[in-house]
Amino acid sequence: METLKDKGVVVTGAGGGIGAALARRFAAEGARVVVNDLDGAKAEAVAADVGGIAVPGDASAIVERAAEALGGTVDVYCANAGLGSGGTEAAPEEVWAAAWDVNVMAHVRAAHALLPGWLERGSGRFVSTVSAAGLLTMIGAAPYSVTKHGAYAFAEWLSLTYRHRGLKVHAICPQGVRTDMLAATGSAGDLVLTPTAIEPEDVATALFAGMADDRFLILPHPEVAAFYEARAVTPDKWLAGMNHIQRKWEATEK
């Protein structure tokens, strides 16, 4: 992998959790890091910790300000901000709309703003924090699962469309990670995610290993590969297994 020293890196949703771990790792590699978060105080705190630049605000609309803060050039963009919306198909439409806006459209808007410059110079790196829910699914979280599938599909589309023009794309798909988002998943997360949960720093380590190998799909939980294969090869068997977990969860909720 090329050196990251003095490269301009933007990490959204970096006020804590995976985003903060990514910001710390990029900064440790010598990159100039923009730390974005909707919570300005958290963005400022992480930026101070890593020697970066805080650019708080909505992740959908910070590319121009982040580029200015970096002197005009963004080399790596980490679309990490996410909304962990739970609920079924009956979740209010505003919940579905918010999940779609943060988990998918923020990625689309960032790519739309960044691609002209990246394609002109023949290089750029787009990192999408997707989640294993984008490859598989998550019980009790229809808006999250569906929109994370969308995030994965968009990252895949970017890669197949522009890789011959110098764009490198990575989709990070962890299962449980010990963050505030995991804590908010409640009993469903306790059943499915908590037993194998890893630290945010483990996700950053997996990403850097994947970047060194130039891999698109980054699996901090290697077992997800087998689950993903089972979903593709024997979908009815896989769905039956997931339904078993659903019923087990429903029994704990009674």
From TrEMBL:
One Pfam short name: adh_short
CDD domains recorded: SDR_c
Cleavable signal peptide: none
Entry-linked PROSITE patterns: ADH_SHORT (PS00061)
The keyword Oxidoreductase belongs to this UniProt entry's keyword annotation: yes
Domain of life, source organism: Bacteria
Keywords, ordered alphabetically: Oxidoreductase
Keyword Transcription: no
Family: Belongs to the short-chain dehydrogenases/reductases (SDR) family.
Protein name: Dehydrogenase
Species the sequence originates in: Streptomyces alfalfae
